[in-house]
């Protein structure tokens, strides 16, 4: 088979279409013939040498895919050869075939195309696990989502609205902010020209902040939170270190949690996938949530897709199709 290899740490040019060995199925895995995958910020970090795959994961980038099951490994039940699926991966999506633990498979939601479905697993699992499982978002609360025009952001807006929450977002262009409003964001903040902290505080504060920036936004996020607010950090685009005002946290009874999805063990991922199937898939199938796809490029053009990702010129997901 063929896959996109990272030949050495570096820019998009180090991504090479190469002939590689087929995956070998382990107990409880299935082999998926990949129809499409999606580009995530984690793929860019891996390409740059800053985010190696967890032990035992495929060395090829790609944290989600859609396709068809072509082989069942030992001990797999409930799935059949020929089933069309999408999947949460620890790596390996930028390939013609990938081995997937059966617990990380999801059926294609009704009304979503096979290629389009590749836009869903990573964002659905990230958003559900952090807004609901970790953040405890409830109807009537206000959630601040940084990077509202991203794949995670566009999904989080729709999901939070479906839960009955009020959504505030930050983004860096008029076009992205307008798209966020179309998806259901009530408070839209251009981070280039406006202090998000002051704006959110003027709106009554946030009960929950979903943050991709890390260090550079820590103080502003804490000041944005209402009493009993929760900050969930899922990315470090703004650095990994910052000072924290514990007095503010004590006075307002705030909490800070930081999570990753990729490095979670398979049983935890299976639990998250199960929660997504139960609580998120019905919202996709009834149209409350739709995949937001900026563009679809051939898998061989992964380098171009990474250039688009790094330019932040996209809104929603960038897909790579076979």
Any idea what the CATH superfamily of the largest domain is called? Medium-chain alcohol dehydrogenases, catalytic domain
Radius of gyration: 19 Å
In percent terms, what proportion of residues is strand?
Answer: 25-35%
Q: Any low-confidence stretches, pLDDT <50, length ≥5? A: none
CATH architecture classification of the largest domain: Alpha-Beta Complex
Please state the overall shape, judged from the principal axes of the Cα atoms.
globular
Q: Report the average pLDDT across residues.
A: 96
CATH topology of the largest domain: Quinone Oxidoreductase, Chain A, domain 1
- Count the beta strands: 15
Task: Report on the architecture of this protein.
The protein is globular, with a radius of gyration of 19 Å. Strand 8 (142-145), helix 3 and strand 9 (166-171) form a beta-alpha-beta unit. It has 322 residues and is α/β, with parallel strands linked by helices. The chain folds into two domains: 2-120 and 262-321, Medium-chain alcohol dehydrogenases, catalytic domain (Quinone Oxidoreductase, Chain A, domain 1); 124-258, Rossmann fold (3-Layer(aba) Sandwich). The relative contact order is 0.16. It contains ten helices and 15 strands. The model has no long low-confidence stretch (mean pLDDT 96). The strands form three sheets. Strands 3, 4, 5, 6, 7, 14 and 15 form a seven-stranded mixed beta sheet that branches. The protein has a six-stranded parallel beta sheet with strand order 10-9-8-11-12-13, with helices on both faces.
